[in-house]
Amino acid sequence: MTTNEQELLVPLEAYLKSGIHIGTKYKNSYMEPFIYKIRNDGLFVLNVQEVDKRLRLLSNFINQYSPGEMVIVCRRENGWDAVNKFSEITGIKAFIGRYPPGMLTNPNLERFTETKMIFVVDPIPDKNAVKDAAKIRVPVAALCDTNNDSLNVDFCCPCNNKGKKSLGLVFFILAREYQSSRKKEFSASIEDFEKE
């Protein structure tokens, strides 16, 4: 095992097996620094070391907030299991499926939620949550694929934000690191974040 592999949050094999590095056939100039190469089939490939580095930074970023100070939003169905497990373990409130309009901006709504930080799985389908966060001026962390841009995103973590295994691994790592920062037990496996 190389020194670089020892420093990764999970073994390189786990990253590769999950497809966390496989992007789309489109790239945004904002995501260009995170792209390693383009495959023969036209898919862009993310640099695994950059993904790991940004996951570590994202973990440090969310560790600054208590569970009641942040909200995670995931419209993409492939992320629902992982986000639900993450929410169950960490106590961070999750909204899966359709984001309730005005949830962050209209105090008259029954589902009104105050927050200090928003975390979205994909800034494209979760764009309404990103816009609301910009209106109330709270930071937004987002998982970004090669086709995402950075409009109203304060912290971008490059990864395959469409694959079930990729998202399972991301939320496994984030839950483990979040619990560790709070000196809490963590006994879940990667598979727990991929269950139906």
Secondary structure elements and their pairing?
Elements: H1 3-6, H2 12-18, E1 35-38, E2 44-46, H3 48-62, E3 70-74, H4 80-90, E4 93-96, E5 117-120, H5 127-136, E6 140-144, E7 155-158, H6 164-181
Parallel strand pairs: 3-4, 3-5, 5-6, 6-7
Antiparallel strand pairs: 1-2
Determine Rg (CA atoms, Å). Answer: 16 Å
Strand runs, count: 7
Structural class: alpha/beta
User: Which series of helices and strands comes N to C?
Assistant: HHEEHEHEEHEEH
What is the CA–CA distance across the termini?
Answer: 33 Å
- The main sheet orders its strands as 4-3-5-6-7
How is the quaternary structure best described? Answer: single chain
Q: Percentage of helical residues? A: 25-40%
Mean pLDDT: 93
> How does the major sheet shape up?
5 strands, parallel
Under CATH, the topology can be stated as Rossmann fold
- CATH C-level label: Alpha Beta
Shape: globular
> Could you name the CATH homologous superfamily?
Glucose-6-phosphate isomerase like protein, domain 1
Number of helices: 6
Residue stretches low in confidence (pLDDT < 50, at least 5 long) are: none
**How many domain modules?**
1
Residue fraction in strands: 5-15%
Query: What is the CATH architecture assignment?
Result: 3-Layer(aba) Sandwich
